[in-house]
Structure formats: structure tokens, C-alpha cells
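Page 42, continued from yesterday. The earlier attempt failed because a stray header line got pasted into the input along with the sequence. Redoing it now with the clean sequence only.
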Amino acid sequence: MPKGYIIARIEVHDPEGFKAFGPLSAIALEKFGGRILVRDPAPDIREGALAGVAVVVEFASVAVARDFYESPEYTDARAARDKASVTDLRIVEGV
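This time it went through. C-alpha cells are written below.
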């Protein structure tokens, strides 16, 4: 079964407020077996204008990635994140 990935770009506008997101998302990541593969606060942007933290998280499958995203635990984390940032996020299937 192919792995599932969340690929996100997070543009933080309130660094102090964003601190609440980390511990809350860690709870959901642990529950769903998510593994952060990439977290780069200053990626080398070669094309496009989307600045922000680059994040790639691996899950056992796309279904598990969706369950993570829709879980009550991540919903709480997402609410904290949304107060302090603008996010571009997608769930994709690995090859």
C-alpha cells in the first residue's frame, strides 16, 4: 500500500501565537503514526512566490493521513494554527 503524505506551506504572521500549534499537532501525529520528514522554516524557493515553513509528513496511507487531518486532535491544532498563520496544505499518495 502506498504511503500518504501531507505537504504544507505555512506562512506564520504571529510567531508567539503559533507556538500553541506544535504541542497540539504532536498529539495528533503520535496518535496516527505521522512522521515529519521535512520542516524547513526558510526553504530555498526557486519557483513561485509562496513563502513560509515547508513541511512534509509521512503516514502509513492516504486514508490514515485523511483520518489524521479530520481527527478532533488535529482539528484543535488546526484552529490554533489558523489564528497565527496562513496555510496551503494537500494530502497526496506516494509512489
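Notes: The radius of gyration is 13 Å.
Reminder to self: strip header lines before submitting.
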